[in-house]
């Protein structure tokens, strides 16, 4: 048994039992909202396993949980006794059950801050001003915002701001299983995409385990993957985030074609072939590889030579191939 669990037992802390979904509906007149991607986990073995995937949580640590809902994962986090738990939930209907947990944690001096807010607008620096404490980000994420949220967090990571002013803030998060597989997809894997490269530039993503859809209430159409994203001590690049994101997005816009095709759409059609030929040579990248065959380092080298080219030809930064009538049909929108 973990030290934290022993402390909980010794201290006599009692967390209220997980309400059944029927209790929830009755007590708080709750109905899962599809637009907020509400799929609840009611099985404590699974919520404990998610929190265990976050690794060691010390008594000085802060945990921020995204979308606690009725508080299944919240209970598992409280049993690990961090110094402070920050809950960010958009749906105010959960306030009552979260307040109940806050009350239970009080005698143990566990601080629980509840924010009824959108995580996409949550100001980390305002709410977490002590960077001497390690922070863990945990959440059974709403599907609707999961990709946007981690891309925002990668940008914060690249700028060492927000939740990432320290370089050891790990993210333990759920995604639709296919998205989780894409995030972790290695070089050459058919699932490899923009999200794989973006994730692997700033973090080491680790697929922890999968949860069958039937474990959730209501049951989603898909299974779920739990991924731990560990920030790299040394990110693979210090190029501006927006520039890297743009180059990687263009490369993967034409997944089935040679990588030079998508990359080429960064440049006007009249000069495209010549510029591409030269830049691939400078970057020492084989221009007939398919996007999924490109390593993270190769993508970064392509971003580096693009930046050098733009520094010498600033107008190229404003070229938008989608605005170019002739090129529109080339665009295959395959974001992730
Ligand atoms: C998949 S449910 C998970 C609920 C709970 N953590 C569990 O595992 O049972 C996602 C939760 O995120 C909340 N949510 C949705 N969009 C949100 C947002 N933009 N910011 C914060 N919470 C959000 C939903 O209301 C819901 O409680």
UniProtKB/TrEMBL annotation:
EC class of the enzyme, as a word = transferase
Domain Ribosomal RNA adenine methylase transferase N-terminal span(s) in chain numbering: 46-233
Superkingdom classification of source: Eukaryota
Task: For this UniProt record, give its keywords in alphabetical order, as a comma-separated list.
Answer: Methyltransferase, Mitochondrion, RNA-binding, rRNA processing, S-adenosyl-L-methionine, Transcription, Transcription regulation, Transferase, Transit peptide
Residues engaged in binding S-adenosyl-L-methionine = 39, 41, 67, 89, 118, 140
Task: Quote the PROSITE patterns the UniProt record gives.
Answer: RRNA_A_DIMETH (PS01131), SAM_RNA_A_N6_MT (PS51689)
Subcellular localization, as worded in the UniProt entry: Mitochondrion
Q: What molecular function terms (GO) are annotated for this protein?
A: mitochondrial transcription factor activity; RNA binding; rRNA (adenine-N6,N6-)-dimethyltransferase activity
One Pfam family of this protein, by short name? RrnaAD
Q: Could you tell me the EC number(s) of this protein?
A: 2.1.1.-
Query: Does the keyword section mention Transcription?
Result: yes
One GO process term, biological-process aspect: transcription initiation at mitochondrial promoter
A GO CC term assigned to this protein in UniProt: mitochondrial matrix
The UniProt family comment states: Belongs to the class I-like SAM-binding methyltransferase superfamily. rRNA adenine N(6)-methyltransferase family.
Q: What is this protein called?
A: rRNA adenine N(6)-methyltransferase
The species this protein was found in: Stomoxys calcitrans
Protein encoded by which gene: 106087877
């Amino acid at each position: 048994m973990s030290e934290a669990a022993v402390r909980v037992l010794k201290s006599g802390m009692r967390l209220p039992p997980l309400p059944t979904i029927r209790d929830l509906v009755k007590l708080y007149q709750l109905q899962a909202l599809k637009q907020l991607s509400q799929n609840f986990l009611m099985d404590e073995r699974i919520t404990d396993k998610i929190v265990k995937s976050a690794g060691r949580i010390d008594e000085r640590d802060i945990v921020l949980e995204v979308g606690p809902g009725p508080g299944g994962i919240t209970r598992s986090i409280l049993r690990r006794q961090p110094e402070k738990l920050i809950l960010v939930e958009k749906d105010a209907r959960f306030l009552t059950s979260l307040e109940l947990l806050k009350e239970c944690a009080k005698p143990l001096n566990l601080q629980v801050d509840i924010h009824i807010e959108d995580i996409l607008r949550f100001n980390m620096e305002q709410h977490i001003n002590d960077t001497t404490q390690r922070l863990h980000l945990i959440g059974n994420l709403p599907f609707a915002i999961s990709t946007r949220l981690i891309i925002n967090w990668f940008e914060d990571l690249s700028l060492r701001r927000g939740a990432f002013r320290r370089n050891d803030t790990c993210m333990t998060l759920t995604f639709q299983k296919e998205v989780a597989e894409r995030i972790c997809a290695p070089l050459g894997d058919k699932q490899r995409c923009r999200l794989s490269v973006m994730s692997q530039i700033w973090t080491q993503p680790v697929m922890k385990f999968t949860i069958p859809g039937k474990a959730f209430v209501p049951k989603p159409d898909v299974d779920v993957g739990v991924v731990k994203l560990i920030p790299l001590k040394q990110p693979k690049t210090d190029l501006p985030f927006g520039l890297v994101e743009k180059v990687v997005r263009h490369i993967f816009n034409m997944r089935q074609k040679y990588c030079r095709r998508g990359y080429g759409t960064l440049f006007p059609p009249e000069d495209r072939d010549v510029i591409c030929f030269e830049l691939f040579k400078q970057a020492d990248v084989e221009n007939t590889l398919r996007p999924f065959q490109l390593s993270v380092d190769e993508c970064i080298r392509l971003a580096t030579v693009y930046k050098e080219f733009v520094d010498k030809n600033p107008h190229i930064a404003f070229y938008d191939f989608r605005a170019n009538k002739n090129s529109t049909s080339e665009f295959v929108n395959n974001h992730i």
